[in-house]
């Protein structure tokens, strides 16, 4: 049922906007999404003059070759051990055994290509091949 609601919302959002633009996404859908342009969306926070912290969705300079107009499902975010309110993305999570266990699980690794691609590219940036050296030890 949740998947049907998610797909309906994604189609409605796409139809209303004409294209998926990170800056127009609600903050609770920003993390792990990809714009129509193929650029990853990133949740950032900033402080207002009165000291309150606000969140905004921003377009990154990182392009994804195979996916665009992608809003990651809540099921994938959860099964990969992630959270929608994640601010930025860091390769530091690749050092956490609990996170790696979730990322390498069949529920994540086989079903969530966007998240696997993101963390595979981060691992490659650190000189590690996620598939061979981390998930299949």
UniProtKB/TrEMBL annotation:
**Could you name the domain of life of the organism this protein comes from?**
Eukaryota
Q: Where is the signal peptide?
A: 1-18
Q: Which UniProt keywords apply?
A: Signal
Question: Does Signal show up as a keyword for this record?
Answer: yes
Q: Which Pfam family is one of this chain's hits? A: PAR1
User: Can you say what this protein is called?
Assistant: PAR1 protein
Give the species.
Populus alba x Populus x berolinensis
